[in-house]
Amino acid sequence: MAQVQRMSRLLVKTLRDDPADAETLSHKLLVRAGYVRRNSAGIWSWLPLGKKVLDNVSRVVREEMDAIGAQEVLLPALLPKEPYEASARWEEYGDLLFRLKDRKGGEYLLGPTHEEIFTLVVKDQVSSYKDLPVMLYQIQTKYRDEARPRSGVLRGREFQMKDSYSFDTTDEGLAESYRLHREAYQKIFARLGLDYRIVSAVSGAMGGSASEEFLAPAAAGEDTFVDCPNCDYAANTEAVTFALTPVEGAAHPAAEELDTPDTPTIESLAELLGVPASATLKNLLVKVDGEIVAVGVPGNREVDLGKLGEHLAPAVVELVTAEDFEGRPDLVRGYVGPQGLEKVRYLADPRVAPGTSWITGANKQDTHARNVVCGRDFEVDQYLDVVVVEEGDPCPKCGTGLKLDRAIEIGHIFQLGRKYADTFQLDVLGQNGKPVRVTMGSYGIGVSRAVAALAEQHADEQGLYWPKEIAPADVHVVAAGKALQTELALDVSEKLAAAGVRVLVDERPGVSPGVKFTDAELIGVPQILVAGRRSGEGVVELKDRRTGEREELTVEEAIARLTA
Ligand code: ATP
Ligand code: MG
């Protein structure tokens, strides 16, 4: 038997106006509908309705983690400095980490994520390959001193995360633990009712190899990703590739120099010659571990330095400065062309394919060259995807023009490998009696962020409409106001609760029906049952919050419908 929650006793104060500091839809609605309340920047209280939703998300996460054999634990959030010093993250996290001291001057942090501590727990508890694989998880409060805590619970400084960690002796074992998590995440986000995409990610500061992000498309999202409107391709903007397609058979006239005074930029050159920027070849000079290299891209495209850095890592990529041109007469600033650049390694975007013809610098002041053909007049030493992806670029899978969309990162899975096991010498006794180093995965879901992502994706002009499994109640019963209506509303509520339906009933005396309806729409319970005009005949109205469809039914029919 479920409980009937009476609005008259519920700690909820709905607001008609958006909070002044709110920028995103979920922030506005979760505050206005009384789910959360801000305490200070990035720090939030979960009020009764919000706590129910948060718990529902946690329950789904917990059920699916248990289903893959992961075991729930609860580790502290207040952690000693030493393990994070050992992994170097005490430093690497920089300002993101909340650091504090105890009364004896001992240094501590509030955990932003727990790789170190889980590694130590497993080192302490596990000694043989027979004890592995093991997957552990917790649903716990995390702390990160975010630079711009905004968007409500979407980006908190204190927030709820499900973090799990897998421990295996072999790479195949790790791949299997990763696969299990990936599938569990697909089930979780489907059950939560979130629209999401899986994109491959760059693992950044975490280190390690395979890594994917789960993104929920939403205007409030802080991540940009590419989405194919035709096929299932979706990717991080940094991961988009462009196929190298040599152009064959075209007869190009011989290259020739052009007098182009005062045209050190692509814009000035294109204007002088009356050609589109895309007909020109832009050659960006950068330093790779101190060596000057040129990067060629079509003149209308930008080089994505982040992407370039990822390709060339661990080499360090820097921009050139004026001093780098000293003693280099071969490098004419603003007039660089790949033809005759003998001493410089030439990297290029695949759009600069063999057989394509370009207008580019002639390596002489105020001079350019045209009909400069790739493969004839210059060679590319290495092709790399380095341009900033743009809307309409071809999908690498099907060729359709890609869309650029915004999304919220709701989950992230990593194959960490042996990074932390190496730091803490996490070995177990292998089958052959020799120690084996353990390999790890780490997997996160933003539990509190998921509530915001859900709100972003399930809202309209009137307010929220929660998916059933996540909603704070199954049905919101509204007593229009008269004694008879209230009596019927309470009676129906009791009957529904007895059948296991979670009921929120608005029987507030002295509150107008209009206010009650507005609140019901704002709060967003999936079904709204109104005891109104025809209560005397035992007839109620049932409304689907999301579709707005309404139907008059007898009390018995309504109960049958809601308990089906
Ligand atoms: P972001 O890029 O958004 O800062 P992240 O990549 O640093 O996130 P992870 O370390 O991968 O985050 O953490 C796992 C999950 O925790 C994320 O996928 C996200 O859903 C959630 N999360 C991370 N930071 C926050 C935050 N400040 N508030 C709420 N949830 C967060
Ligand atoms: Mg992440």
UniProtKB/TrEMBL annotation:
One of its GO terms (biological process) is prolyl-tRNA aminoacylation. Residues 52-467 form the Aminoacyl-transfer RNA synthetases class-II family profile domain. It is found in: Cytoplasm. It comes from the Bacteria. CDD domains: ProRS-INS, ProRS_anticodon_short, ProRS_core_prok. InterPro entries: aa-tRNA-synt_IIb, aa-tRNA-synth_II, aa-tRNA-synth_II/BPL/LPL, Anticodon-bd, Anticodon-bd_dom_sf, Pro-tRNA-ligase_IIa, Pro-tRNA-synth_IIa_bac-type, Pro-tRNA-Synthase_IIa_type1. Its EC number is 6.1.1.15. Keywords: Aminoacyl-tRNA synthetase, ATP-binding, Cytoplasm, Ligase, Nucleotide-binding, Protein biosynthesis. The keyword Aminoacyl-tRNA synthetase applies. It catalyses: tRNA(Pro) + L-proline + ATP = L-prolyl-tRNA(Pro) + AMP + diphosphate. The keyword Cell inner membrane does not apply. GO terms for molecular function: aminoacyl-tRNA deacylase activity; ATP binding; proline-tRNA ligase activity. One of its GO terms (cellular component) is cytosol. Belongs to the class-II aminoacyl-tRNA synthetase family. ProS type 1 subfamily. HAMAP family: Pro_tRNA_synth_type1. Consists of three domains: the N-terminal catalytic domain, the editing domain and the C-terminal anticodon-binding domain. Homodimer. Catalyzes the attachment of proline to tRNA(Pro) in a two-step reaction: proline is first activated by ATP to form Pro-AMP and then transferred to the acceptor end of tRNA(Pro). As ProRS can inadvertently accommodate and process non-cognate amino acids such as alanine and cysteine, to avoid such errors it has two additional distinct editing activities against alanine. One activity is designated as 'pretransfer' editing and involves the tRNA(Pro)-independent hydrolysis of activated Ala-AMP. This is Proline--tRNA ligase. It comes from Streptomyces griseoaurantiacus.
